[in-house]
Amino acid sequence: SSLNTPVQGWHAAAGDLLKPAASGAKQRVTLDFSYISLLGLGSEEGLGHVVNTGITLPTRAGVFSGSARFLTSPFESLDLGTLAGVNVSFAKDLFPDLLVGAGLGGQFGEDWSAGLDLGFIHLPGKWLFFKDFRWGAAIRGLGKGYTPAEGITSFPPVFTPALGAAFNLVNSRNVLWSFSSDLAFPSFQNIRFSLGSDFTYKDLFTLRTAVLLDLDDMAEKRARSLPLSFGLALKFSTSIRRDKSEVKTSVSAAPLQQGVWGIGAGLNIPIGLVDREAPEITIDTAKESYISPNLDGVLDDLDKELETRGHRFVRYADDFLVLVKSHRAGVRVSQSIERFLNR
Fold first, then answer.
1. Hey, which bits of the chain come out as E strands?
2. Where are the domains of the chain?
3. Which of 17, 34, 243, 293 is least crowded, fewest Cβ atoms below 10 Å from its Cβ?
């Protein structure tokens, strides 16, 4: 649990481990890699390692994500031994303001685990005085937990309901200052609360801080000496043109139990364009057309070729504001509208 620090966020494939619906609005293929060094700087000495990799694949059906991780820890306070884990998930925007997702994951080492995660994220936008407000809920670890030794809780905890919310306090041309919180009830036997803040300047660098409180650790006097983590992220564009591929680098640090520190770095690489332009719609008007709507079977209908092009999946909205994501389905909607207008 102590490794679930704010290094993992909404923008990485590993974020689906905590928020199964987090990738539902992704438009670009995204690659993710991070490494965390576990340093024994206090009463426990030693060196551990955590390696994470991930990929996010948007499709017309939805967004598929996959991640893999390797961890080795020699510390008694992080008595996990050596393990490897994988996770696959699927997320989708059912509506413009509602994302849903589900994930399957497992870990293998001195023990094994397998579980299902379910969740949703609601994006109402402005709410009260909050800007870009979003909230969600998840149930994590529906299955068997990883318990390599007796007397420790499973990693991650099984049957864990969680609630989360986030909003932007400042959202200007140069500055984005956001806050997020998460409240979880691991195995219905504990309470964990986290509060984080991201400060971004000109979409180039981001400062991150977070506080994590664990009621069980505090009661057993196993809490972190400093329940604070912090990080810095920098973004580089791979092209002068706007909306091209990017490389986001980050470094972070968090104190864990018994003087063990987690210090890490990561790469997040979104590939391709972000679709911010309206689709290009072309209708064939080169030939003269006639219609004779007298129901005699001759020229009762007028058909025109309609071509739609966009950088990504073209979206259409009908009179009931139902979004159609695929290009093929969108063409069918356009043809229906055309037949209605020309009948």
1. 29-40, 47-58, 63-73, 81-95, 98-108, 112-127, 130-144, 160-171, 175-184, 192-201, 205-214, 228-237, 246-255, 260-271, 280-283, 306-309, 316-317, 323-324
2. 13-271, 280-341
3. 293
